[in-house]
Amino acid sequence: MTVGYDDEGGGAPLLLVHGHPFDRSMWAPQVAAFAGPSRRVIAPDLRGYGASSVVPGVTPLSVFAEDLAALLDHLGIDGAVIGGLSMGGQIVMEFFRLFPERVRGLLLADTFPAAETEAGKAARGAMADRLLREGMAGYAEEVLTKMVAPANVEALPEVAAHVRRMMTGAPAEGAAAALRGRALRPDYAELLTRVAVPALVVVGRDDEYTPVSDAEAMHALLPDSELVVIEGAAHMPNLERPEEFDKALGAFLDRVQPVTAVQPLP
């Protein structure tokens, strides 16, 4: 299987997992902000998205998590701070379930731990059918102002165009397989109470998909966590308000992975 990924910088590793129906380019501001001599940032395309292989059918979250572990193996990385947004956050939870010893810290952005409801399973199945039948364009237009706050669609046209481009560019077969697999996920709430590493929970104030109340509930479950609410953002705070998002992530990384400044030679 082919996996597309960015691997920039050196030192303490940070693995960033994109959401649905996006690709690794959603993390471009964070790769630019954090990759350098003391931090290594890895941002892969999940299977079915971006430059990675499209595998039709059903892709459970466990398969995504195993793919991430295989990528870390390929890169010679034993453990990392691992973060994800939306579906990516749920993949991060599944990664922790399967490979807790490889996790140095967790970033959970605009996501939630609950299992899918029966109504949700039906809705995801119906949407998967629709994407295979119609393609991604209609869906992308319908959800754009939920992914990006309506005010930001107007004020930040380049961000809106980037999000639209990722969604319309996603392979329908890969997106449908992820929807079907995501519908089968377990409830991660109890797992979060057993997370022994630091965690950062981030959410956009205006997120309709994963409201602030969901983030507050995760924060309460995690033994060692910080909650940051990003004002003026919806479901994509890392793109809508990158400075605020990066400030929160940077402070978290400094706590979890403190790095020593490189001193210039005399």
TrEMBL record:
Residues 13-242 form the AB hydrolase-1 domain. It comes from the Bacteria. The keyword Hydrolase applies. Gene3D superfamilies: alpha/beta hydrolase (3.40.50.1820). Pfam families: Abhydrolase_1. The keyword Transit peptide does not apply. Keywords: Hydrolase, Oxidoreductase, Peroxidase. One of its GO terms (molecular function) is hydrolase activity. PANTHER family: HYDROLASE, ALPHA/BETA FOLD FAMILY PROTEIN (PTHR43433), NON-HEME CHLOROPEROXIDASE-RELATED (PTHR43433:SF4). This is Hydrolase. It comes from Streptomyces varsoviensis. The lineage of its organism: Bacteria, Bacillati, Actinomycetota, Actinomycetes, Kitasatosporales.
